[in-house]
Amino acid sequence: MLKQVTLDGIEPLAIGAGILGTGGGGDPYMDSLQLRSEIQARGPQMVVDPQVLADDATIVIVGYIGAPTASIEKIQEGTELMRSVRLMEKHLNKSVDAIGIAEIGGGNSMGPLITGLQMGLPTVDADGMGRAFPELPMTTFLFNDEIHAAPFAMADAGENAIVVPQTVNDEWAERIARTITVSMGATAGLAGFVMTGAQFRQYCIPHTLTLAWQIGQHVLEARRQGADVPDAIASTLHGRVLLRGKISDIKRRTTEGFAKGTITIDGYDRADSNTEVDRLHIEFQNEFLIAYLNGEAQVTVPDLICIVTEEEGEPVATELLRYGMRVAVLGVPAPPQLKTERALSVVGPQAFGYREKFAPLPGGVIGVE
Amino acid sequence: MLKQVTLDGIEPLAIGAGILGTGGGGDPYMDSLQLRSEIQARGPQMVVDPQVLADDATIVIVGYIGAPTASIEKIQEGTELMRSVRLMEKHLNKSVDAIGIAEIGGGNSMGPLITGLQMGLPTVDADGMGRAFPELPMTTFLFNDEIHAAPFAMADAGENAIVVPQTVNDEWAERIARTITVSMGATAGLAGFVMTGAQFRQYCIPHTLTLAWQIGQHVLEARRQGADVPDAIASTLHGRVLLRGKISDIKRRTTEGFAKGTITIDGYDRADSNTEVDRLHIEFQNEFLIAYLNGEAQVTVPDLICIVTEEEGEPVATELLRYGMRVAVLGVPAPPQLKTERALSVVGPQAFGYREKFAPLPGGVIGVE
């Protein structure tokens, strides 16, 4: 298990988080630069196993909310998450004991480490998605009747600060947080989902920080050894490579605040040249949600669809996909916390407006070594 | 001076507030129904003169924010303002001593009385506009470097509650409050602009609750006596009747969250039938902002332009104006607090995008008997 994040740990973590981002979650690059400078200034960041959290510890979940496209143009000030946690501490009138990760996939894996460093608090080795999803209610912390998104606090790159003590329900929390984000210029830091250590342990997906770091380690090792990188990723994640090929078409549309679209990938020629090449269609809404191989659904959300460059195994976000790119597409079984009936009502294919039912990929549970 | 608002005081107050609404501010009718039932249940509401506020008293300003058109369809729950004040008390960690009125014009004159009744606190006989304006920064409480809109709190008809501890400036407060309002369904209660008694006294427009009530009293009296009602209003407000006539055209457009447009009113035939009739054009953005008589600007914001029905002297909101209506148009000099250089930079004609400079109406200062 990962005990601390050092300078050497940043690169593998960014690679692993990018892969778990399933095309969304934002590029970890800018955040990893800030994490580097914070670790240089303050030393490695402590990582704590959720199993060792005191039952009555106070955990707050943090993450940036907003449009990844906006965060490319509007660089974070860097203390948004810490200031959000401070607002929560003032509102709750008590100190926070550890920082929780909302979303391990993409850039939001880094902020909670930076926040912990800035505040002198450990970051818990766990998250609420095991991947990336676009909305607050899509976290395992809320797949119960006990924990709520509110109270939560938000801070922007300027001096705007907002506390939301109470919402009608978590869908309202999402709606309110999203509109506040828009008024704050499309990106903002958020801290909320207050939990005890016991509650956090019960509802989190454990050890996903370690998992992201291990994926990255294996990618780097495979590159060094000249081994097949997509195979190394698939093996770490107990998944499989669905197809290797070239992107032959991308359709994009931006509706209802999502980057939606379809990617078509044509497999390389078969040995038997009389048959057609395999063709993969992937539907996305920020994240890759359903993959159809020759018209048949192969992977359905919440199972993970990851696209990496064929040679380097570098994760590719939906907004960076382009015609002609040579990629490998992986299908990876989701953690069990995303596959309960309650979870699927929020993160299953039908929750995203598809007709398909969730058809779980066979194979082992994602877990760390 | 008004010492308390009784059942008998509601009708004149609603009439006076409607007239001071200058076409905007929302119809006081629904709010006056709630005020009636609250007074029936709890007795008259105490009104306190700003001159007698203790220097160190804590005053919070309250009002509904949102689109008047939405508030017609979406009836208030009735405790939004009180819940907002309670949120502020919790945030400030101290009790509020008196309730301040943000805007005397229109429906927002009533909520602060209801809130006071619900909380057992007096409402101060003063406000921050002396009329109606559409945005938070357009209040005299903010025409200085000392008082800010934030911290403020908002509550909706459901259980959503938001506290905004800090904003970059008051324009950001407006922007954030407005987007929160949209997420809350276009109307919400707001409490903020925390002041001491001494600060409130320095920046308020005093005795506007008494003024609204007196206007209404004079209207009711003139109706009873068969006297000319528009003349009675003009005389109470030290203003004048610009024109009596029929609405001959209305152009409306809804842009940037405002109900904008132009009203044309043709005066009745002159005695000398060889001359053209007088024609008045009134530009509005929620409120009536500039009146041109035969092409010449006669009244410019912040001076008040009030349209009332010719017979009854009933105020008419911009959204209720229609072709053929017989009306009287009044021009009324604004209170001096709206005519300072700083005030005009926020509420003068150029702040609303017009080329005209503010040309103050001659005549006395609005004041109570």
Summarize the structure in short:
Two copies of one chain form a homodimer. Helices cover about 30% and strands about 30% of the residues of chain A.
Indicate the multimeric state. homodimer
Largest interface: A-B, 23 and 23 residues
CATH structural architecture of the largest domain in chain A: 3-Layer(aba) Sandwich
- At the fourth level of CATH, the homologous superfamily of the largest domain in chain A is CV3147-like domain
* Element-level helix/strand string of chain A: EHHEEHHEHEEEHEHEHHEEEEEEEH
Task: Explain what the structure shows.
The structure is a homodimer of 369-residue chains. Chain A has 369 residues and is of the alpha+beta class. Chain A folds into two domains: 4-206, CV3147-like fold, CATH 3.40.1610.10; 228-352, CV3147-like. Chain A contains ten helices and 16 strands. Chain A has helices at 7-20, 29-42, 68-73, 80-92, 111-119, 170-183, 197-203, 208-225, 229-236, 341-347; strands at residues 4-5, 45-48, 58-66, 98-101, 123-127, 152-155, 161-166, 187-196, 205-206, 240-255, 258-267, 279-285, 287-293, 296-300, 304-309, 326-332. In chain A, the strands form two sheets. In chain A, strands 1, 2, 3, 4, 5, 6, 7, 8 and 9 form a nine-stranded mixed β-sheet that branches. In chain A, strand 6 and strand 7 (161-166) form a beta hairpin. The longest helix of chain A is centred in the middle third of the chain and has 18 residues, at 208-225. Chain A is globular, with a radius of gyration of 20 Å. The first copy, chain A, starts with a strand and ends in a 22-residue tail after the last helix. Chain A binds chain B through residues 87, 90-91, 158-168, 172, 175-176, 178-180, 182-184, and chain B through 87, 90-91, 158-168, 172, 175-176, 178-180, 182-184.
